[in-house]
Design brief:
The structure holds three protein chains of three kinds.
Chain A: E1 4-9, H1 13-18, E2 26-30, H2 40-53, E3 60-64, H3 73-83, E4 87-90, H4 96-112, E5 121-126, H5 129-133, H6 135-140, E6 145-150, H7 152-159, H8 171-184, E7 187-190, H9 199-212, E8 216-219, H10 225-231, H11 236-254, E9 260-262, E10 265-267, H12 269-284, H13 290-296
Helix pairs in contact in A: 2-3, 3-4, 9-10, 11-12
Chain B: E1 7-8, H1 11-18, E2 25-28, H2 38-48, E3 54-58, H3 68-73, E4 77-82, H4 87-94, E5 102-104, H5 109-115, E6 123-128, E7 130-132, E8 137-138, H6 153-158, E9 161-166, E10 169-170, E11 186-189, H7 196-199, H8 210-225, E12 234-237, H9 241-257, E13 261-268, H10 270-277, E14 281-289, H11 292-300, E15 304-306, H12 309-313, E16 327-330, E17 334-336, E18 341-342, H13 358-364, E19 367-371, E20 375-376, E21 379-380, E22 382-383, E23 398-401, E24 404-407, H14 412-420, E25 425-426, H15 428-439, E26 451-456, E27 462-467
Parallel strand pairs in B: 1-11, 2-3, 2-6, 3-4, 4-5, 5-26, 6-9, 7-10, 9-11, 12-13, 12-16, 13-14, 14-15, 16-19, 17-22, 19-23, 24-25
Antiparallel strand pairs in B: 7-8, 17-18, 20-21, 23-24, 26-27
Chain C: E1 9-11, E2 19-24, E3 29-34, H1 38-55, E4 61-67, H2 72-86
Parallel strand pairs in C: 3-4
Antiparallel strand pairs in C: 1-2, 2-4
Helix pairs in contact in C: 1-2
The chains are: A alpha/beta, B alpha/beta, C alpha+beta.
């Protein structure tokens, strides 16, 4: 379950170290915006070294590379892929072309390094008007794409609108990106909340994105991990109901029926899928262990 | 009959009147923290008067007291006793600046030693932000208000001669007298007892360090699962950023579960004052104030009480607050695999702190929790044997780090409780190995110099000695 | 690598957990280490430094490390960056 994606500034050793214990579902080592142009080489070296030697456990590890206009991209990709990054986040994705380039480079690097072809996944960061318009095309451009992520700050700059805490200005873009991701069968990751000190604001923003259908949220601050995870934690009632649904559907299956009545309501496949998602979130937030699940079934 | 006035025209005159002679012991408190001007002024005056061979017994020596080293050099001071010593002074002591060994006690051990007659104070100089001409005084009023004056109360009781030093003289009688006239011999008014801006120095804000917060959250969960968190709960936490964060997360749990604590004690911060106002604790028992909010609160809120060091933590008292503690949150610069904690010396063996109330609260509380990251920069927290034993391992129950919680093997029932609550319980040996897998295994040089300090346990026994550093 | 012209170069910072590496051209190889953990990790740090220096084939220059308690992986990365920069390998500002 990938609820939280935490950016770690690529040129700060302590932050790279802290990442090993921060409870983010995915860590994104940043070589782009948080690194000054003159320090790109240092950050690349540092991130590669950290990926090689620090035990980050079982969480997702991604590296945000520099955008394709810059000359660092190939070096970025070589360094981090050989060091073991499983995903790269590509910034400023404006449709399929950007990702084709990256895919070709990844093919080469994987072959050169004897890495299984296609292993390195891509998270497409969509942060321009053109990117939003072509989000679906980008998501379908290569099977490497695992998620579309929204970058609200750059997007607003491109749109020429103020970026507000409420985020009404990006409502359409969020929905559009979500549709594209769902249609392509990849994850949808919401834009980061930008006020590091406002944990309640981050919580509200995450609840909003969750209710639109987003799978997870980018985060620019470790302080946002708690509110993000809280927002993605289902209520106990929802979990109890989901367990009942799964139970009822299993009975229905044994009895050879496609739908079943639970508390006077018809339960069918879409309801089961929602229930399974709820249980997955419950497991991710530590509400369910194998033991408690067994007991309640 | 006519009474002689206690108000002296100058510090020098007060010292002369006190009968202070070479070789005697003078005492100070550290409630003015990094803003204190009294200790330095008194020592300067003693030096001018040509006094030699004095022992300074201070509840703590802060960085602002580093000029004590000048008076060590000129022979005015040849003995130091304290419960805490700032690194700026500690470095010199560790390199042999003082011939005699420094005596380290704890906040409870210091008054206990006076009670038992092991520690004699000839003249106590008590800084007070408000005093009247008879010596009734407190730290709650006046321009340089610092709140509780708890650490000075045993000095007032035991010293042969007591001088109250103030910069604001009030009309007799000062009603709210924390130290009353019956024990005061002299009053001196000086220009300034301390810099109010520096009095409130120190780390008294909740940490923003994500690792500190992670540790604090786990510690709060551990308290929640310990079985001790119920109505009537009693709690103490230090003023370090991570310790304060524990109080904050604990407040969240108490709020959620509707639990009201009986008291929080020790050094008091604005965070605890807020918990009091919110009704999450019924009272605060305050031996020292760490920030402005605490100083304001102790001056106006009857539920926020001032306690003496004796009542706070003395093992010689018939009972003390620490004996009523359920949980205390403490820090550590080093902890060893037997749970002994070092807060006196750094990883190179140089003096940089002291027990304060560490060993007192650890001995008294039902659950003593150390919160600390498994390494600071590259230096691992957990060692085979601490450089200095400040608090014996038998008094420490739980270590909380970012890589898991280690229970003292003596507390297996606690381990199973925490494990049932889903907390990651690991052995302290595993935590040590984890840290060393990140930092590498440190090599340790053995320090073979003469002893420069003795650490005395709260019961008056020798706990450890600190050796000189030879560069 | 010594065939190329070496120049003064730096990498890293003086923040806690980092190390500032400075390389100056010199006839002989000299390594200077300043570290708060020199008693505990001085030997280990020097071993890593020599390993990295050798892997780049560097045989001369004054390399000084102002360590702030950096982990081994950080020391290796900063040193490698400094050596590359010293041989003008860094791309610098957007070319």
């Amino acid at each position: 379950m990938k609820r939280s994606y935490l950016f770690l500034p690529g040129n700060q050793p302590t932050m790279l170290q802290n990442g090993a214990v921060l409870p983010a579902d995915v860590l994104i080592f940043d070589l782009e915006d948080s690194v000054a142009p003159a320090e790109k080489d240092a950050a690349r070296e540092l991130v590669a070294s950290a990926l090689r030697s620090i035990d980050y456990g079982r969480r997702g590890l991604a590296v945000r590379i520099n955008d394709l206009e810059k000359l660092y991209v190939k070096k970025d990709l070589e360094a981090v892929v050989t060091a073991g990054a499983r995903s790269v986040m590509v910034p400023k994705v404006n449709g399929a072309r950007t990702l084709h380039h990256v895919a070709v480079m990844l093919d080469l690097i994987e072959e050169e390094c004897g890495i299984e072809k296609g292993r390195t996944k891509v998270i497409a960061l969509i942060e321009t008007a053109l990117g939003i318009e072509k989000a679906f095309e980008a998501a379908m451009s290569t099977p490497r794409v695992e998620a579309l992520a929204l970058g609200g700050e750059d997007l607003c700059a491109d749109l020429g609108c103020p970026r507000t805490k409420e985020g009404t200005e990006i409502f359409y873009s969020r929905s559009r990106l979500l549709l594209a991701a769902r249609a392509a069968g990849v994850d949808a990751v919401d834009t980061p909340f930008t006020d590091a000190r406002d944990e309640e604001g981050c919580y509200a923003d995450t609840v909003y994105a969750r209710d639109l259908g987003f799978d997870g949220k980018l985060s620019i601050s470790p302080h946002h991990l708690r509110p993000i995870h809280r927002a993605f934690t289902p209520t106990e009632e929802a979990v109890a109901f989901a367990l009942e649904v799964v139970d009822a559907m299993e009975r229905a299956k044994r009895e050879g029926r496609g739908a079943v009545s639970l508390r006077g309501k018809m339960i069918d496949l879409p309801v089961l899928r929602q229930a399974e998602r709820t249980l997955e979130l419950a497991r991710a937030s530590g509400m369910l262990t194998a033991e408690t699940e067994g007991a309640s079934l | 009959m006519t009474r002689q006035t206690k108000v002296m025209p100058s510090l020098g005159e007060a010292i002369r009147q006190s009968g202070l002679r070479d070789g005697m012991t003078i005492s100070f408190h550290h409630h003015l923290r990094e803003g204190d001007r009294v200790l330095n002024s008194v020592l300067a005056e003693c030096s001018v008067l040509g006094l030699k061979d004095l022992t300074v017994n201070a509840s703590a020596l802060m960085g602002c007291h580093r000029s004590i080293l000048d008076f060590v050099r000129d022979g005015t001071v040849t003995g130091i006793e304290c419960n805490f010593m700032h690194a700026q002074i500690g470095q010199a002591i560790s390199r042999g600046a003082l011939e005699r060994e420094v005596v380290f006690r704890s906040h409870g051990g210091r008054p206990a030693a006076m009670d038992r007659g092991e520690s004699r104070i000839d003249v106590a100089f008590i800084a007070a932000s408000a005093a009247d001409g008879a010596g009734n005084c407190n730290g709650k009023q006046g321009n340089a208000a610092f709140g509780s004056i708890g650490y000075a109360m045993p000095d007032a009781e035991h010293a042969q001669y007591v001088v109250v030093v103030t910069d604001q003289l009030f009309e007799y009688p000062l009603i709210d007298a924390s130290i009353s006239e019956e024990s005061v011999d002299a009053v001196v008014v000086i220009d300034s007892i301390g810099d109010p801006l520096r009095i409130m120095s120190g780390t008294t804000r909740v940490t923003r360090d994500p690792i500190g917060l992670l540790i604090a959250e786990q510690a709060a969960k551990a308290i929640g699962a310990s079985g001790l968190l119920r109505d009537g709960f009693t709690f103490q936490t230090g003023a370090g950023g991570t310790s304060l964060a524990v109080a904050q997360y604990l407040g969240e749990i108490m709020r959620e579960q509707g639990i009201v604590g009986r008291f929080a004690s020790g050094g008091i911060t604005g965070l605890l004052v807020n918990l009091l106002h919110e009704g999450l604790f019924e009272t605060l028992l305050d031996v020292q104030c760490f920030d402005r909010e605490a100083v304001l609160s102790i001056g106006e809120d009857a539920r926020h009480g001032e306690i003496s060091a004796t009542r706070y933590a003395s093992p010689a008292a018939k009972s003390s607050v620490v004996d009523h503690l359920d949980v205390v949150i403490l820090g550590a610069t080093e902890i060893d695999t037997d749970f002994n904690v070092n807060v006196h010396t750094d990883s190179n063996g140089v003096i940089m702190g002291g027990s304060g109330g560490h060993s007192d609260t650890a001995a008294g509380a039902k659950l003593s929790i150390i919160v600390a990251p498994i390494m600071r920069a590259r230096m691992p927290l957990i060692v085979d044997r601490v450089g200095t034993i400040s608090t014996p391992g038998e008094d420490i129950d739980l270590l909380v780090t970012q890589y898991g919680l280690a229970c003292n093997p003596r507390r297996s029932e606690l381990a199973s409780r925490l494990e049932c609550a889903g907390l990651p319980i690991v052995s302290i040996h595993d935590l040590k190995a984890k840290a060393e897998s990140i930092t590498g295994v440190p090599t340790r040089s053995t320090h073979m110099g003469r002893a420069v300090a003795r650490v005395i346990s709260r019961d008056g026994m020798l706990l450890d000695t600190i050796a000189m550093i030879e560069d | 690598m010594n065939s190329k012209q070496m120049k003064r170069a730096r990498a890293g910072t003086l923040e806690s957990g980092d190390v500032l590496v400075t390389i100056e051209p010199a006839d002989a190889l000299e390594i200077k280490l300043y570290s708060p953990v020199i008693n505990q990790f001085g030997d280990a740090i020097m071993r890593s430094v020599r390993e990295v220096v050798e892997s780049f084939g560097v045989t001369s220059g004054t390399i000084s490390l102002e360590d702030q308690g950096a982990l081994d992986c950080t020391i290796r990365a900063r040193l490698a960056t400094a050596i590359r920069r010293s041989f003008e390998e860094e791309e610098g500002v957007d070319a």
